[in-house]
Write a structure and sequence with these properties.
The protein is built from 4 helices and no strands. By secondary structure, the protein is mostly helical. Bound molecules: zinc ion. Zinc ion (ZN) binds next to helix 1 and helix 3.
Amino acid sequence: MLSCREVEKMVMPYIDEKLGEDELDEFLEHIWSCDSCREELEIYYTVFEGLRQLDSGIGVFDITGALEESMELAWLKVRAAKLRRVVRYAVETLCATGVLTVLILQIRIWYQSGFLG
Ligand SMILES: [Zn+2]
């Protein structure tokens, strides 16, 4: 679990979408369980997202809604990354198991045919 100080340092990278998937995961976990960091993020997000909106001239905008959306997207990104990892692991395990099974069957065949003595 990250400390509040560590999370504070990640607020700007979060807004700039520069956190890696693992960092994002820990960051969100903390934000969801820590009111003071969440407030901090809301303030920063409101300020910086507001400035960005002004710059791009989009105008009046639901910034709190945008933060919710941003956190949901970030969460989905983390979930997707984890799922990819699980699927890859499962496929690798299946392959390894498959190879092992074939090997065992082959050895049995050799054994039964007297090839191994
Ligand atoms: Zn905190």
